[in-house]
Amino acid sequence: MLKLFEHEHLDVKRLSDEETAIEVRNLSLQFSDKPVLNDISMRIPKHRITALIGQSGCGKSTLISCFNRMNDLISGCRYQGEIILGGRDINHKKENVSRLRTQVGMVFQRPNPFPLSIYENVCYGLRLQGVNGRRQLDDTVEQALVDAALWDEVKDRLFESAQVLSGGQQQRLVIARALALKPDILLLDEPTSALDPLTTLYIEELMAGLKKRCSIIIVTHNMQQAARVSDYTAFLHQGRLIEYSDSDSLFTMPHKKQTEDYITGRYG
Amino acid sequence: MSRFSPSHWFSSVQKQSFAISFSAFMALLLTIALGCLLLIIVSRGATYFWPATIFKGEFRLSDESAPVKAYMQIRNEFSRSGSEVIWFKYSNRDFPYGNQAMLEATQISGLQAADDGALITLTDGRTVLAEPLSLQSAEREERALEDYSLMQEEVQRITNQIEVIRTERLSDIHQQLSELDMRNVAADAPARIRLSRDFNKWQGLISELEIQRNQYRLTVAFADGERFDLALGDIDEIVRSGRLSYWQKWQATLTAIGRFLTEAPKQANTAGGVFPALFGTVLMVFVMTLIVTPFGVMAAVYLSEYAPNNALTSVIRISVSNMAGVPSIVYGVFGLGFFVYAVGGNIDTLFFSHKLPAPTMGTPGLFWASLTMAILTLPVVIVATEEGLRRVPEGLKAGSYALGATKAETVMRTILPIASPGIMTGVILAIARAAGEVAPLMLVGAVKFAPNLPIDGEFPYLHLDRQFMHLGVLIYDGAFHSQTDVKGSSMMFATCLLLLLVVFILNLLAVVMRMRLRKKYQQG
Ligand SMILES: Nc1ncnc2c1ncn2[C@@H]1O[C@H](COP(=O)(O)OP(=O)(O)OP(=O)(O)O)[C@@H](O)[C@H]1O
Ligand SMILES: [Mg+2]
Q1: So what's the ipTM on this one?
Q2: Which family, according to the similarity comment (chain B) (predicted)?
């Protein structure tokens, strides 16, 4: 039954509200009057991996940062349109941004563990929520590290500094850090661009496993990676959504010329 | 023609290397100058504690005066216009408690070390250079010098008795009398008469004991054989440096250093110890650190994390860095005018009006001094903290926000810990500056002599409104005491050395803390 569900191809153009993790409606965004995103509308499916591809500077990072309102931190950033998540518009003034960010986890291109112990890194979000019980913290830390496939490597040195971990381990640590908050959506901004192929493969496997737990959006420059791990792929070009469909059809028979040019490597 | 203009004399490389060697030369000169300064302070400061040799010699103070034979201690020797000059301290009949003189070496005859001479230090800090001869007990009988410590014990016993009467009887009577005063009891009331009778009785006993104590005496002889005697109760210690072995001298030096650090100054800050000043300096710096750190950090966090990026912020930033260049005396005047008179005066009228016109807070004191120094060092802390905050990687801040942290939480949990080495650097600089500053302090609370420490057993234990002593003020005072003090080893140099050590130790502490923080929050 589950198997069936997993292989079922949803049409991203006709997703029902239950099947939608995020609905973007006419989203435009400017950085100090320079338009970066232009009238983007799309529905991102639940419990699937959706890849964002596109040329450098086309606005991929900016788009996923809209989903947890990280763009608010950039002065001079303005946006219009709606982003519906869990039945509400998160662009609304009254949105509780801190709570939103616990629901929408984010992993950055370069691993950024805090200069704390491994344990405290994973606890960071929980402590912010006022969770201080030793038992609860221990359990959550273990679960998150297991989910991020890091537990076996660090279980004996949880209280050592996170800075001594390798790059790949650090990236899994920050994934664990996000997972500890049990997010509904996980945003990954080029999570493997700084890692070697083997570690990359490791993290890709990890993503496939995490799909059951949350909806994943990944930005990547690596076509093979997008084709390999993602169920759906969106192609952005100069702030516009050019093409968006299931990965198989997008990579085998793109409808738009720009998409084809990009995936065959005709753009820089 | 232009071949002969000066700019062609050197090639540009030569010019550059000339400039470099010139700056190297200047740097070398500065280092040497600094080294010499340190050498002078260390040598003159440290030799102050070494038991100086006692000499015997004969000299005339002027051509007309009679020759003087005396025990003396040489404080410094130097040459002036070709001839050797000796600056020394001596005791004789005319000046039993010592006098200083500066004579050419040729004017002193028969100068030789005299190991029968002793340096007798009195409890009030004065000294006598003479040969101890014999002791006298209360029964007026002659006793040998060997009984000195035994007799001192007897004297001590009497002193203790006097002290007991003073604290247990007299203070009680004083208190009762002042209670009667408060209740406006008539001068001839029976209670009053009874109390004053008691008072006179105990006072009489004390005088008797004091007379008895004064009968214990030490007879000494000056170099010319003239006798002189001293009450044993007044004598603090007798050091015959000529009879001390090398190790005993070291021992004496260490004891002297110990007493220097733990005792109060005597003889208007020319003898005794510096404990109140050391304590005052450290406490002032400590309180200042407690004030300046939170304010400096908050200001820096505001400037670099919260303030909008506009002209006003730049103006504030520029003024802050320029504040570091304001002469410190200006801060002193500001502290006196604003904190002491304006703020302190208003606190007095609001909360301590029952004590007016005697000021409580409206007078210079430790707290105002610390506050003034905090303002003085604030720019240093702000600038260094901002520097530290700038080093916090954007990625870490973003990581914190992405986990649902608010701005305040990110500042508290991520930014400040990572910036803490930078904050520490600022605090180090602030401490170094504050511990060495004297001029503004003299306006806002540091004094040459303070009767009480700012901390004692009396509620509320920490008296931040009290005036305090400061090592720097002591040095300033010492330098003006006598022109000769700056020429030889003296208490002033010892205090200089101590001040340097205090600054050094405070810095060292802060550097160690910074290193540990760096290690803890290092960026991989
Ligand atoms: N903080 C900012 N202020 C102003 N402009 C910005 C800022 N961040 C990004 N931009 C601009 O927005 C556009 C989109 O940037 P974005 O980072 O989203 O691109 P991207 O698709 O993620 O590129 P890459 O693949 O290189 O990461 C770029 O033109 C960039 O110059
Ligand atoms: Mg990007």
Answers
A1: 0.91
A2: Belongs to the binding-protein-dependent transport system permease family. CysTW subfamily.
